[in-house]
């Protein structure tokens, strides 16, 4: 069943892994058409190896109209020609594994593209036809059916139902889509839907993929009575489309598929839930291996808030056998170098607006410190492409924005394309080595990005790129950072400090410098003079003596 390259296997690799997210459209362009592709990614495997990552996670590269950046999938068994071929994907998986890097791919089970063969068949069929039962088609309300079946608000804002047109041109039934009209929701009560997705998992697992990341993992199952509105104070498990109890049967079946391989595959969930008790249900031994920790990612630059999130996350995971995960951003989130430089450094989708000012120098400084904080925590670490370069968010002109979140907000929300601008690799002018000289990237790169290129940062030992490389190397070489318990230390209200065996992490989020304990400095985000940690910076130290200010904290281990 396994046809991965014969590489030494250590178990379980994903518990302490550093996983690098590749948004392929913007990572590296191998053929000069302005769109990143698998050929470009293959050429950058040495970069990923030198960064020190254990795995890469690809956002979708399957055949897609790209109405939502590839999260509208028309065919899971084909690579979109803009990204290459299936053979290119297989070559990347194989060559990356030879370099010691595993591959995780995205699966988007809530919906498919409106160009998927199933949906085309459903649209061509009459109301009541079995072809429509794989989706959620419903008659409209009102005397003429012109009123949507429910008043639910979509994940991208706006309505969640679109009306079809019958072959004779008359208005037809409505279909459900929690995202865009180009992404019709699947009916997970239908056996075809369940069987097809299990077959998709096997298709990619058989090609050597080490795991899957499950998009919008809590949204699959719907209340088929379709209540008109979502209650303001809904009982956990009874929301009409979020975190319904029937979901867990789906993931138990998927776990059985993953565990059937000689090297068991990994299931990683995108589970946005504020209720930690409900969240950890997805991490039971027969369901997902890990799930993203979004709470920490959205917290402001504040010691109390961050500590609260870290403590709650570790406490929740202590009730499971799953490791915590830590991430500062992804392809949907404002980049930390920009976010941490704002007056409000927290993150919320519906708070995003054009023209929000940011102190970039402050933001980069804090993002570097946050990188050391997250890298020192127990569990798995995710790094979004470009964060290791300290890239800022780009405010694009509305005419260049392709993200549907922008259009569906009426142009108020700047969307997510600002964190998806193609990476700068080398040179002094666009495309900065993203593609061949003279090519035009699909999103414009700022002319000032020559300072952020990999080439420029390679020459600067104090660069953010070198900071990430050293941090990742120390995570691997320091036993305390790999397996040590976490014990909080009290160094002041504006300081996060904890020990993991003989490694001490200190992060100064306050306005005054902080005196460091008498210990050897392993790594710091800013220069340390006279054992003083500057504001908005972090340091790792090795100490053999207990710190007397230790107070009770988590003892979570990985």
Task: List the defining traits of the structure above.
25% helix; 5-stranded antiparallel beta sheet; 558 residues; disordered N terminus; 15 helices; globular; alpha/beta; 8-stranded parallel beta sheet; single chain
Describe the protein.
This protein is an alpha/beta fold. It has helices at 38-43, 45-51, 86-98, 117-124, 191-205, 247-259, 276-281, 294-298, 303-317, 336-339, 360-376, 404-408, 454-458, 464-477, 479-483; strands at residues 18-22, 55-58, 62-63, 75-79, 102-107, 137-138, 161-165, 171-176, 211-214, 266-269, 290-291, 325-327, 380-384, 487-489, 495-500, 503-508, 514-515, 520-524, 532-533, 537-542. Helix 5 runs parallel beside helix 6. The chain is globular and about 80 Å long.
Count all strands and give the number. 20
Mean pLDDT: 94
Number of helices: 15
Shape: globular
Which strand order do you get reading across the main beta sheet? 11-10-9-5-2-1-13-12
Radius of gyration equals 24 Å
Strand content: 5-15%
The percent range for helix content is: 10-25%
Quaternary organisation of the protein chains: single chain
| Low-confidence regions | 1-9, 547-555
Largest sheet: 8 strands, parallel
End-to-end CA span: 30 Å
Summing up helix and strand content along with how strands pair, one would put the structural category as: alpha/beta
Gist?
By secondary structure, the protein is an alpha/beta fold. 25% of the residues lie in helices and 15% in strands.
List the helices and strands and how they pair.
Elements: E1 18-22, H1 38-43, H2 45-51, E2 55-58, E3 62-63, E4 75-79, H3 86-98, E5 102-107, H4 117-124, E6 137-138, E7 161-165, E8 171-176, H5 191-205, E9 211-214, H6 247-259, E10 266-269, H7 276-281, E11 290-291, H8 294-298, H9 303-317, E12 325-327, H10 336-339, H11 360-376, E13 380-384, H12 404-408, H13 454-458, H14 464-477, H15 479-483, E14 487-489, E15 495-500, E16 503-508, E17 514-515, E18 520-524, E19 532-533, E20 537-542
Parallel strand pairs: 1-2, 1-13, 2-5, 5-9, 9-10, 10-11, 12-13
Antiparallel strand pairs: 3-4, 6-8, 7-8, 14-15, 15-16, 16-20, 17-19, 18-20
Helix pairs in contact: 5-6, 11-14
